[in-house]
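look at this fold:
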Amino acid sequence: MLSFLTITQAHDKLKKREISSEELTRACIDRVEKIDGKLNAVVYKNFDRALEEARKIDTAGTFDSPLAGIPYFAKDVYSEAGVPTTGCSNMLRNPPSPDGLRAAGKDYIPPYDSTTTKRLKAAGAISLGKTNTDEFTMGASTETSCYGVTRNPWDTSRVAGGSSGGSAAVVAADECLFALGTDTGGSIRQPASFCSIAGIRSTYGRTSRYGVMSMASSLDTIGPLCKSVEDLAIVLEAIAGKDPLDGTTGDHPVPNYHGALKKDLKGVRIGLPKEYFIEGLNTEVEASVRKAAAVCKSLGALVTEVHLPYTKYAVATYYVLCPCEVSSNMARYDGIRFGHTVEKPKDLLDYYQRTRSEGFGPEVKRRIMIGTFALSAGYYDAYYLKAQKVRTLIKKDFDEAFRGVDLILAPVSPNTAFKIGANSNDPIAMYLEDVFTVAQVMAGIPCISVPCGFSKEGLPIGLQLMAPQWEEGRLLSAAYAYEQATEWHKKRPVLDRA
């Protein structure tokens, strides 16, 4: 099937006129219609417009860009002009009331494009629609989505990860050739690991967040999820770079990521952090990651142990800082200018209370309350200010480690994909799923997840590589070398018989 192609393979066929963009797009659409009912990964289908765009590209007949005519999905937090974008929240979805007394309102439709989707459109990529996510990206399983949970293509009784679980699932299930996600505390890397695909979180400021719904503005980063590291390089090169509409983007030149990929790791110094191989780490995950380190060594890498002592404070620090920023960012959803609304409020206070109580789900409310408490008078110094100081120490950990090594290698998640509902009533257990993915976020460094094995139950296991700030090229090249030396990325779930 054409939808099973990578970006690189599809581009080659498009340039040779062996296939058309319309045929490729229609193959993805057919795949979605055939199997997404088992996954619930797609929440909005923009198929008519996608086919129209594909025909225009075929008519133009120019495939100089490697993304020209390539279909993709965007996580439901990316703004696209004229396309419903709800953050998978009833605050913006505005469904009918449970009692049936109030008719459904209109989903939020942005009047503008995010910088990322605009850049992809300029490169000729074709948006197929939106994928499922935890509500406003708050979660690690898509179980907080107002559309329901996304199921893992490898085992539909398990989660696909989160918050970019929908994006990971559509790529793993070959419903498109790549997808866009966001990563605040691991939301690209963890679902990529759970679904056996490649995903990259770039340096904070490497990619523009303009037009992407914010959860925690100093932590949010966007990036692609793809079937191969080579495809990651292609997409990242297209979307990265300074954006005048986002003051947090850095004025750093974007390298030729794709052209710099290498098949060996000769002389590359890789560190294994002692603090990531801890009690509670799944034995099969640890074995797969250590075998991956051995593969890197066989490719010429110098593997040594490094120490990141403040890692043990990372989850606690993150879950003070993140809710504080959530508390601030969610204030914009008041039901006045857009989004959910209520009928016949008694007064303005009643209007606000009912709008936010009905619109937000339990996890969003939990984080708003935690953040508001931590920022309140008398507690700011004890929680928020102290957490910011620990964040600085966590960054210094990485700065010190990278003086002795070029890359750091570790697990993505302590476990393989968990059963749907396993952590639903235990928010602390859910937060601990981020134990290996939040420290990098607070340091602002780039990191990548690539497949490195499977458990005895047939569940994917991911390998995480980390690099210093702005060194995505180094990261992609090392991940590519490992990928080319292994076969894990070639395996595909058999959904047709699921």
User: Anything to note?
Assistant: The chain is about 35% helix and 15% strand. The mean pLDDT is 95.
